[in-house]
Prior knowledge:
- This protein is mostly beta strands.
- Helices cover 0% and strands 47% of the residues.
- It has no helices and 12 strands.
- The N and C termini lie far apart (40 Å).
- The mean pLDDT is 93.
Amino acid sequence: QVQLVESGGGLVQAGGSLRRSCATSGGTVSNLAMGWFRQSPGQERDFVAAISTSGRSTAYTNSVKGRFTISRDSAENTMYLHMNELTPEDPTIYYCPATTLFSTEPVVSATAYAYWGHGTQVTVSS
């Protein structure tokens, strides 16, 4: 069974950067379609970014285009989300999900993912 552990949360000033990691076990990132979702207290979990099984295709929600980059490292078996120009309006809890179903396109729907990490929190101070 695929297990996902997020890390890289913390406190950052507005305009700053963070790199979030999603360490994977029970599967290899090169055989998974993966993504990032985020959520603020009392709000729904929203799509942020996704990478296809092949790794050749990525997708982003409009609010993070040009600021965030999703990537993966097969040697480390880890997926990353590089976040730049963070603002206090960026939601705080980030989750990484994965699916073993092969996808030529990034998977943007939360219901399509079978495996989820527990989430880590990012706080952006103004």
